[in-house]
Amino acid sequence: MSGFDIIAAMQALGLPAAMAIEDNLRAIEDLVDFHYDDHERLGLIRGELHRFRHPLARSIVERIDSHMQNFQDFSSEEQDDLQVGNEVMATRAAKGPELTAAHARLISLIDYVEATERDRLKVELDYRSHRGFVATEDEVAGLPGVSLDQGSGDDPVWLRVERLAKIAPPAPPNQELALWLSLRDDVAAIPSLKVEIATAGLVELELLDAEEAPQHIALSDYERRDSVEAAFHAWLEGAWRIWAEREKPRRETIKLYNALYMLRQQLEGVSDVPLELVCGIGFATLFRNGQRLRYPLLSMTLELSLDEQTHCIEARPRLEADPGLEIDPLDRMGLHALDQWRTASERFLATLDEVALSPFAPESFEPVLRQASALFDPDGIYVPDANPAGARRIPSVETHLQVSTAFAFFQRERRATQLMEDLRRFRAALLDGAEAPNLPAAVAALLVEPSDTIEEPEYPQFRGISTIPGVTSSDGSGRDLFFPKPFNREQVEVVQRLEVRPGVVVQGPPGTGKTHTIANIISHYLALGKRVLVTSQKAPALRVLRDKLPEAVRPLAVSLLDSDRDGLKQFQESVDIIAEKLQRLRRHELERQISDLDHQIDNLHRSLARIDNEVDAIGRTAVSPVVLDGETIEPVRAARMVVAEPELANWLPDDVDADPENAPRFDDSDIVALRQARRKVGQDIGYLGVPIPKLASLPSIDSLLPVHRDLSRAEELRRQIAAGTLPNLRISEGEAEAQLAGLAHELDELGVLDTKVASAPYTWTTAAIRDARSGEDQEMLAAIARLQPDIDHLILEGSHFLTRPINVPDDALDDEKLLEALQRLCEGKAALGFVGGLFAGKVKSKLAQVTLLGEAPRNADEWLEIQRFIDGIKRSRKLRQAWNHLVSLGVGDQIDQDGLAIAKRMRAQQQHFETVGALVSQQQLVDGRAREIIAGWALSVSEGSASVGKLCEVVETHRLKYRLESAEAIRSRLIASLTSAGGDIARELQDYAVRALGNPDVSNEAFHSEWQRLTLRLAHIEGLSEAFETIQTVCTVISASGGSRWAEALRSEPVEGMEDRLTPGDWVKRWKLRRLSTWLARIDRHARLQELGTERAEKEALLKEAYERSIELRTWLELSRKATDGVKAALAAYADAVRRIGKGTGKRAGRYRREARAASDRAKGALPCWIMPHYRVSESLPADLGLFDVVIVDEASQSTVAALPALLRAQKILIVGDDKQVSPELVGRDQARADELAGRHLAAQVADYRSCLREEQSLYDLGKVVFAGGAIMLTEHFRCVAPIIEFSKGQFYGHRLTPLRLPMASERLDPPLIDVFVEGGFRKGDVNVPEAEFIVSEIAAIADDDRMSKRTIGVTTLLGQNQAAHIYKEIEQRLGTEVMERHTIRVGDPTAFQGDERDIMFVSLVAQREDSPLSGNRYEQRFNVALSRARDRTYLVRSVELDQLRTSDQLRRSLLEHFRCPYPAETSDLKDRRDRCESDFEREMFDLLCERGFRVNTQVRVGNFRIDLVVEGDNDQRIAIECDGDRYHGPDKWPDDMMRQRILERAGWTIWRCFASRFVRNRQAVVDEVAAFLAARGIKPVNDGEEWISRHTELRTWRLPWPDDTEPAPAAKQSPADGGATADAWPEPAQKTDVLSAAEAPDSNVNLTRVTESQVQNAILNLMSDKRVWSNGELKRALVGVLALSDADRATANFRPGEEKWEELVNNALSPSRGNSLHAKGLVKSAGRGLHVLSDGDIAGPVDKAAMVRPSNPEDGEKSYSPPAIEIGTEYQIVSLVVPLEEVEQIYQPEYKPRLESLIDTTLQAEAPMYEDILIERIARAHKKERAGRIIQDIVTQAISDRHPSVQEDGRNVVFHETMDTGQLVAYRPARSDWRSHRDIPLIELASLALPLVRRGKAEADVLAHFARTFSLARLREPTRKRFEAAIAIAKATREN
Q1: Beta bridge mates, 412
Q2: DSSP string spanning 937-1004?
Q3: Do you find a cis peptide bond into 144, omega within 30 degrees of 0?
Q4: Cα within 13 Å of Cα(1154), Cβ side
Q5: Using an 8 Å Cβ cutoff, are 1249 and 1266 in contact?
């Protein structure tokens, strides 16, 4: 056949020619089957293929012939219908829409999915070929407890099986027979007699002589053989036969029940192949062409349920499933008329009204069966007609067709018929219509090429009930996120990305809250009015999803999972609720309520933002250090400083703070000056700041005495005026005093002038006075005034030459030649020029006489000075002549010589003229004023001194009168001024002035004496002003610095005694401590934090309620908006149809049921949320593109492209899965056929997506490629306890998971990891029977433990499925389904557990020695699933040791290593709880809580976090205590602490925070507060007085019991890592080692001290030193006499009831598989089973024995030490190591070793000796590592050992610097803070602290007390005491040496 022919054939079928490939004839075959009813096209295809000689082509032709024959068998009416249908199809093809590339790809993808599903559909000809459960009517009818056709009409039960218990076989009649009897609990196993038995039992029954009896005896040799055989036969034929006959049918029922129980688990998702249970009705048999047919013609899918009350298993027909016509087996047999029979049968079944199809209602199926027997074979037989007796049996297979009415129940793979039909509907929707429909965004993303542009979408910001820093808004703004449950960052990002992308992929590792996330997302979109579909491959992943939704919106979500009835019930309830609510709903009222809620939500968000900001401020402040005087002080250190000296800290009365404004602005010199000033002031301190009178302002005693006298004279003066002896005044009284004072002043001036004139030496004074009085002097004075400039000039010139004397010849002024020569010299010329002759000599001679300052002038400037002098002389001559002429005409003296000095003589006469004039003027003035003031005054002062005297007397007398009258005013002013002043002295002065001044009784002498005393006192006080100023100045500065109260005391309180208590010498320290105290009180806002925490919790609760209410209202509002009249009508129609169905048994019940189904299809649009597995999507939902706004696919890694129907219904899609978990596998698939289908249908798909669309790829894989930009990983793990999930976390997820679950006390199983090594385990095929035996026996032990009754259990295997099947069978047979149901036991390979979890998981490794390694993604996925299912405990059951696995078997090796040590990089979990505390603060809090009896754990791991302290109660309450403010909780860590707290609170934790500074200051109050906090939550002290230890893992060994064991073998032999016991809840506490008080001490007769593991091992080695072989029993018997066993040692062991606790240590020491045993150390080797012998050679082996048994106390050893140079050294300093960021990862490189050695050397130089683990941690931290992993430990340890010496000390290495002597004690180095615990100080350094006391002979108790004080220890716990005693022993050894 040519390619053109195939093209033509395919075109005839309406398919694109591009798909035609010559070899792809299978495509034609598929298309022929699809178009079986297109008669015309089939004929065309047949014609094309008939000429092509190819076997497949011939087969296709035969198939076409069969379809044509079927068509011919139709009636003419039916043929017409087919032809009309074909014409319609042809018309549609001709008028179909024009498809885009995306639409064409979608059609091809639909065809691909349909072809692959059809290809997978296995057509079996025999119903038993399906394998699995099969039960025919004959097999089940009549069995006890089995019922058929039960239930009511509306709830038919076709099969019910009761759970029966096995009845044990009867016991033999006597003990003798019991010894010989071989009896099994099996009705098919006939009992028999044993051939030989041990004689011990016969001897015990005294049937044999003990001395003569052999060890074993044969029955043939037994003398009582006949008696035994007779008794056996009688019992066998009697009691046993009766039991067997009765029990046999019961065992069949039990077998049936167990089979159905297992099938029920498989139907629920255990099986990785989708299964279904069907009831086949009407069996047809036929043998033809070598094929045997035995298959039902009709089928009905059933569902299984387990009655919770009766535990019966019931099988019902599925309500959503239609009866099936089994056409495919008939078609394979080549039968004809199939289409005719199918059409007729469908019509018949569709018209059943009275009854539905049922094997118990013949009328529902007989017509169909009868027609089949007639149509398919002319010789066919309908058995009920031919042989009525055999009608209900399956006919035998004959060459002719036989059809009976028999029915059978059987399981088979689920048919994909509904899926294919669904896809056909979608294809029709694409091809029908004039235009191709628009593709939803999620669908289009699969079909279009990815964009090449870089997109940076703007993600919206949200807010919700949780606060996520950096994701949700911090200020409460943003869009609302309608999540009803707490959420994390990833959940917000999902919604953000869905807002801008068509699809988002979420990776959900195990236990990361996928269901929680999906529930939140559903709620969000429902609130926005969106429709949501949630689907997955299997139902378990969806089972609890609906219950996670808010209860108010739950009716809007229908969950269709396993049970149709449950789903229908939900649907009916939802329809009723929706219909009823839509009737009552008022849209405007809803909108108003939503608006109110929005306002409330806004306010709550703002409140939360305010609270968070305040909490952040408080927290940062509380843990931030303060800088005082340049010193940085942490709060905890400040608190310790304050507590250490409380008196000093509280001395200062002022609340000075640590703020800069309270820094002292004064220094010690100021305080010294203040102290001196206060001492000087003494008791006069009260005058400080008081306004005392100023002594200078007070009148002196001399001025007061006149006042005192004047007051007595005032009266006498008044009498004189009245008598007229004293001239009166003519001016008013008001101005008299001032006028008189002025006149007296003028008189004084007159006296001065008169005296001056009289004293002048001039004779012409009288004449001058006369001229002045007459006015004749005016002309003279005017002339003198004109000479004034010349006089002034000469005075100036005279002043100039006073210091520059000049000599010139006497006649110089008259010598013209000389003057000319001088002029020339002044001009810088020669003196004589060209003049010569006689005159030149004279001139020169005279010039030589000219000197300046005694020397001849030297330059022109000096000659100028000479010239200036001569000019002055000339001018004086002229002035003298003028002056002499003037005085010759008047008065004055003549001037008789020249020179510059004459000007001064002239000036003196001139001034005298002026004085005379002034005197005359003053006389005239006084006369005028006297006449104006004094009445009748006629005298003139010019008349002489008598007149002047008289006037003065009158003036003074009147002035005296006024002074006397003003004396009272002076007195009043004095008293008033004293009144305004303050102080005692002012009061005394005022009192005396009032009382004595002016008092005639007080003499002048008395007044003088007292007033002088008072003023001297005032002067003394004034003399203290400097001291007062000092006090005031310093106090002002103190007050300005904040010490106002102190300053006030300094100002007011006098110094008492020798010392001034207010100015102490250590004021600086007191001020600092007070500042620290006030600062600590200010930052201690713990109460406010608690208030904010309570307020925040209340606001969050209100916010949660508001959001839940908002979700509810918004969802209903949006629903009401979309509820059209059509939807409401459909809801009403459905409700009406359901009511009419009633019981489902009446007439027309079938029609009513069909009407209800049709109405339900229309009403489904009213429900916005559907939850269902993939197969139900096609069954239950209409085929509409983009039907849902969001489709969520859960467990998408298990889904394939077969989930396409769900995708096509999506506008946007959220794919949730994990490619690290089990993905689809093409098990048994023909790869060539798979490639062929992919090549045929996927060739045109987008190239990047093509490979991911294949059937072997998961939907998750497809989503990662298509929606590559939207992948999000959930990282918070909530399922497993941390040690369990740690394997998957590190192995598969790169440590990105954060485990947040810490189980409650009642949940905890300690340890969570149990590693069971099965001795002698082996694998036969894929089954390891010994491992299975252990698992079954351990489950039996769990089932018998009442404490474990609520635990769920799962069992999985890591190799194949046969092991799981074997274990299931053993559990089922030995434990029964009752145990399986009680513990929800599930057994299967990891696929069965995907999406599920259990409390306890058993993982069977199955592997044995040298098995092939497991590698590849498939095995990694299975390991991941298997090891992440357990919540609380995982058992690893194995038969192989780590060293027996191949090196390449990394997966198994990693698993075994994990169970040995889940945290290899961490050793702190093995320490004592107290040792794990990271600061003294935590240790003290731990001690105080333990003292009160609380159960406290430390450094508790929760995910990637650690909680400082966890306090647990017996009521499953627990509190996390965070100790803030130490070195791990600084201000930079506060935001991280708060974020961590939010995460922990979201995980269910309650956090109580305490700041170190507050604890130090108020220790008791804090402890009382936390105790009250615990009590409020019901956490009470446990008062067991014992320690407890929590371990991660436990190693056990177990073996199958030997057949001849006389004692039952234990369930397991435990070998825990620490030799301790285990428990299922809290571990059994270890003994408390503290010294007990008398009240707490146990009975003195009871010794609670237990031997240690090392003591036991040492004792064993001593016993075995004889080199002989020892057994376990021999060693135990010998050890009883060697070890000092206490009552605690002799207590019964936990896991071996027949042994004592000390024997467990022996077992551990001798266990070859235990890591710390003598075998593991190489000290002992095995000499056979249970036999041991000392290793050959020296006892060294791999571990040095001396090292193992070395004394931990140096006192027990022989080493001595040399003393240190000094006992107490300098402060311990931590070296600062700085490693650049680019170098931190180089630590792993060999070439980095020199740099590493340098860092180590630097550290050791500063800090050695130090413990190696601290050094390693220091190096790791420098390289930015949170923890020092094993690799870093090895690297650093190697670098240390290469250079620096070390010694061992109690299991820890002490490292010294290479320059140090390890035998010399090291000076003790104190630390400033609490970060250096005594546990971090080597004993060789602690010994130096004890050495001074030891040398003084102090008792050990005193030295211990000294240690306790040094390290602030309230009490010494036993480990601490021993450590200190060891240090003391070293110190003593040093002293003795």
Answers
A1: 276
A2: ----GGG-HHHHHHHHHHHHHHHHHHHHHHHHHHHHHHHHHHHHS-SHHHHHHHHHHHHHTT-TTS-H
A3: no
A4: 12
A5: yes
Euclidean distance between CA atoms 919 and 908, whole angstroms:
17
Q: Which of 562, 524, 519, 561 is nearest to 1216 (CA)?
A: 519
State the pLDDT confidence band at 52, using cuts at 50, 70 and 90: low
Report the predicted TM-score, pTM, of the whole model to 2 decimal places.
Answer: 0.64
Helix/strand/coil (H/E/C) assignment for every residue in 8-33? HHHHHCCCCHHHCCCCCHHHHHHHHH
Among candidate residues 1350, 1355, 1377, 1380, the one with its CA nearest the CA of residue 1366: 1355
Q: How far apart are CA 1377 and CA 254, in angstroms?
A: 9
Distance, CA of 543 to CA of 970 (rounded, Å): 112
Tell me how far CA of residue 1429 lies from CA of 267, 1207, 1489, in angstroms: 20, 29, 36
* Long-range contacts from 1635-1640, C-beta under 8 angstroms, 24+ separation: 1635/1918, 1636/1585, 1640/1585
Identify whether the C-beta of residue 1914 lies closer than 8 Å to the C-beta of residue 1487: yes
The DSSP output letter for 1595 is E
Vertex 101 angle, CA 98 and 102, to 5°:
105
Nearest CA to 1741 out of 1769, 1760, 1717 is that of 1717
Cis ω for the linkage preceding 1608 (within 30 of 0): no
CA–CA separation, 1909 and 1276 (whole Å): 45
Q: How far apart are CA 1493 and CA 1580, in angstroms?
A: 8
Dihedral through CA 1473, CA 1478, CA 1479, CA 1482, nearest 10?
-50
Residue 196 backbone dihedrals phi, psi, to 5 degrees? -150, 145
Type of residue found at 1310: D
Q: Quote the tokens at residue 869.
A: 């002098």
Whole-number Å distance between alpha carbons of 107 and 97 = 13
For residue 1915, how many other CB atoms are within 10 A of its CB?
A: 11
DSSP of 455-482, one letter per residue? ----PPPEE-SS--TTTB-SSS-SEE--
Token code pair at residue 1192 = 């969520």
**1170 strand-pairing partners:** 533, 558
In whole angstroms, what is the distance from residue 1279 CA to residue 1289 CA? 13
SS3 131: coil
Residue with tokens 């194995």: 1438
CB neighbours of residue 1834 within 10 Å: 11
- What is d(CA 535, CA 561) in angstroms, rounded to the nearest whole number? 10
* Cβ contact 1472:1877 at 8 Å: no
Give me the phi and psi of 1086, to 5 degrees please: -60, -45
Pairing state of beta strands 1313-1319 and 1551-1555?
unpaired
**Average pLDDT, integer, range 1551-1568:** 82
> What residue type is 463 in one-letter code?
R
Residues 6+ apart with CB under 8 A from 1796: 1787, 1819, 1835, 1836, 1839
Residue 1589 gets which letter from DSSP? -
Helix (H, G, I), strand (E, B) or coil at 1774: coil
d(CA 859, CA 865): 10
**What confidence tens digit (pLDDT) does each residue in 980-993 have?**
888 888 888 888 88
Instruction: Give 358-383 pLDDT, tens digit per residue.
Output: 999 999 999 999 999 999 999 999 99
Please identify which residue in the block is written with the tokens 């769900």: 1206
**pLDDT at position 250, please?**
93
Comparing 1083-1092, 1463-1472, 1663-1672, 1804-1813, which segment has the lowest mean pLDDT? 1463-1472
**Residues in the chain, overall count:** 1937
CA distance 539 to 271: 12
